[in-house]
TrEMBL record:
GO molecular function, one term: hydro-lyase activity
Assigned keywords, A-Z: Lyase, Magnesium, Metal-binding
Stated name of the protein: L-alanine-DL-glutamate epimerase and related enzymes of enolase superfamily
Pfam families referenced in this protein's UniProt entry, alphabetically: MR_MLE_C (PF13378)
Signal peptide per UniProt: none
A GO BP annotation: carbohydrate catabolic process
Native organism: Phialemonium atrogriseum
Residues of the Mandelate racemase/muconate lactonizing enzyme C-terminal domain: 225-321
Amino acid sequence: MAPGLLNISNEDDIPSSTLAGSRLPISDIKIVGFETYDLRFPTSLDASGSDAMNPSGDYSAAHVRLTTNTDLTGHGISFTIGRGNDLCTAAARAIAERLVGKTLGELTADMGRTWRYLVSDSQMRWVGPEKGVVHLGLSACVNALWDLWARYLGKPLWKLVCDLTPEEFVACIDFRYIVDAITPEEAVALLRGLEKTKAARVRDARSNRAVPAYTTQAGWLGFSDEKMVELIRSNLAVGMDKFKLKVGGDIKDDRRRLKIARDTIGHDRMLMVDANQVWSVPDAIENMKKLVEFKPVFIEEPTSPDDILGHAAIRKALKPYGVGVATGEHCQNRVIFKQLLQADAIDYCQIDACRLGGVNEVLAVLLMAKKFNVPIVPHSGGIGLNEYTQHLALLNYICVSGEKSLLEHINSFSEVLKHPVQTKDGYFVTPWEAGYSVEYKPEAIAAYEYPSGSFWTSEKGLGIINGPKA
């Protein structure tokens, strides 16, 4: 059965509130246009998101809204941190044009072919290829298409994917460039091997015990010690007992902050650190040796995200100390992930829902990580990014890895979303709304569209626009 004609006979699995109304045949749903929005949220005002490489970002979204000949719409984003979001929005516009006039049926009948079609505009591809601004624009469009498909079926994105047969799942992926790491036949066999135990993992999803959470919200580099301690304690009080702290400033300051954090968290709870690419390979090794006493599970982005052999060297040096290496939030495509895995360069594979080219490419990386036996720990953050990654962690657990994916939780500006992520007792609450969970409230778009939104024309907004460029 082609993915575009997915069997939806098991609708009784889905709460009735999420089901779509009467549907036209999928072949009659036509994309007739799109809208794009450059949305920027002023996280720089309170230092949320601050780290060693990015001291003062305004978390942003290049937002695409696909419109159809019905009232059905598809919403997609790509995540940035401020300036340059307009470039990603422009790239998304150029790529979205390739969807107009096509039906949802033809696009979803062979999602692997559709993905390759969207990356095959040779003139746009020249300014990538499959990386950077163009790839970020692509991800917004691909994510919007998957959102549209899931809304049509009345399913959350994670369940749409989990309901695919192994053959349908694999058909969503463009295997060009990765067949030397995993073939379609190997991928189908891998997925089939998990079919018999899938129902038990779906039960975990139903009981909100499928995706364990950790928080970075207390660990931003720009926060005072007092604020860090206050946020750690407030998270512990609601059952959030795993934390990540930013490092990469002065190493003495890193040590001081980690000691305070460890004393507050306790010495048996999970702690991770993130240097956001700021170190050279030798510096990463030497600095982490000075931090091992605080028992970090991993160091995230210890050096350039493109330095595969550098990550391998850092991993080899830190292995005797029990510190793993994680990377992926700036990993530009499935090819770099392939090489990181082939080179034994990472202990944790950090897929990003927007840096990669949307859901299709994420599925490819999940399969490679499973074959190489490297656990998935998605990168979150962003205002909307966490809403995406909850779905990716769920589908990875249920149908790809069979192992729970620890997932980062950040809740800045969650009020601007119609369906913000929820956590309870240290786990993500499973989303059941139809689609991919990222839809902004109209009033949020009116306030934060850049530069004409009501916030950006206010005194505070103009202060950021006209202020120093960090």
